[in-house]
Amino acid sequence: MSVLNPAATDAASPTFSNLGLAEPILRAIADAGYTTPTPIQAQAIPQVIAGGDLLAAAQTGTGKTAGFTLPVLHMLQGHKPANQRAGAPRCLVLTPTRELAAQVEESVQTYGKYLPLKSLVIFGGVGINPQIDALRRKVDILVATPGRLLDHAGQKTVDLSAVEILVLDEADRMLDMGFIHDIRKVLALLPAKRQNLLFSATFSDEIRALADRLLDNPRCIEVARRNTASEMVTQAVHRVAQPHKREALSHLIKTHEWPQVLVFTRTKHGANKLAEYLEKNGIGAAAIHGNKSQSARTKALSQFKDGSLPVLVATDIAARGLDIDELPQVVNFELPNVPEDYVHRIGRTGRAGASGAAVSLVDDEEVKLLRGIEKLIKRKIEELPLPGFVPTAKPAAGDPINDRPPRNHAPRGNRPPRQAGQSAGGRQPEQRPAGPKGGNPNPPRKPNQPGKPHGRPAQGATATDPRPAHRLKQPPAAALLGGSSRHKPS
């Protein structure tokens, strides 16, 4: 695996016109308003065009998608197979999420609008029949999530035997989401001779292991050191108790008049509750997560992108791949359990050279998570006060503001010992109040009283003791089994 020197390309300061791209693609790039490639684009595009496998890593928001869509379009437009079959794509792009798949296909259409190439995106959560109809026609570039692609393969509605180029986008996220088995199934359906491109936000040990199995003597591009946050993002922390976080977020949005803010929660239920709270307080908001229908997710994301929806509340499903032009603000309503997810969350802002800001609301129980994040990104995040914020809200009964506390990732042997009488969840058992004047807190039940029947006495009960026979004083089990006993028979 050969590693390219980022400084060599940066020094040349290339433009798109000298990267070897075809004229129709350059025209589409100009229409989109871009003139200078990002470092990952400047290094990856020539390498992909030159042929051979590639392993590329760069921070989120640095233009990795165009880093492979542009050269793929260039290579496919250069030659057309003589007998291309319907439903047999020449390039397959695998992505971990539906939103990212739709975004990649949108990028293909944007940069390939002057080319006679056909693209298609398929993912779950929507009807499969329209996708089957589309696959009855010729497709050059197919963008797909692994699960839905295997559904089509099982129904023989897609033919992967003609794939020339395979792209794994956000490969580290696919591994995080447990797609490795699906990826292996897809690889078994592909021709052995093909070009493989693996793009990732990180170069974890798992990614390198996947690259060793998948790639053949690849070139390696790493634009930034592992797990670094963009320098274009200003980061800050506000210490807020969990019950007051929703009120604090509403205060921040109104005080700073944020026109567009992406908020991350730890759970789907928490995302729904927060969006409902903001709506009730006059702030337009919608939640997006895995339990939402695809139509609801698409609608919310579309409204957020066009500016008609000021707040989008999301779980980490949106932490990868969402490309929102000049998104100014990200808020971590709760810190993620995995420090790397923090980097991908705040990477939704400060993209393509623009500046951005990320604010985290941190409860006392999340301080350990905060320290883990600071250790990962190798910097201290500034803690700032919340001027003008006076919490007044009290959680309503049955309103689980903190619906899931941070997980304890410590090995079980290193956790503090459970206190006597403490339950597994860390709670003390409920104590019944003492009886009158300090008497027995568990007084015996009163027998049935005349005029106040409580049902028929159980079999074996007496007039003075309504308890059934099996509840009356019995010999201990040891005595019944022939062992010693303190019980003295009457």
Helical proportion, percent range: 25-40%
Major beta sheet summary: 8 strands, parallel
Question: Quick one: CATH class of the largest domain?
Answer: Alpha Beta
Number of strands: 15
Task: Please give a structural write-up.
This protein has 490 residues and is of the alpha/beta class. It folds into two domains: 2-222, Rossmann fold, CATH 3.40.50.300; 233-396, P-loop containing nucleotide triphosphate hydrolases (Rossmann fold), CATH 3.40.50.300. It is 32% helix and 13% strand. It has 16 helices and 15 strands. The strands form two sheets. The protein has an eight-stranded parallel sheet, sandwiched between helices. Strands 11-12-10-13-14-9-15 form a seven-stranded parallel sheet, with helices on both faces. Strand 4, helix 6 and strand 5 form a beta-alpha-beta unit. The relative contact order is 0.10. Mean pLDDT is 80; it is low at 5-11, 409-418, 420-439, 445-464 and 466-490.
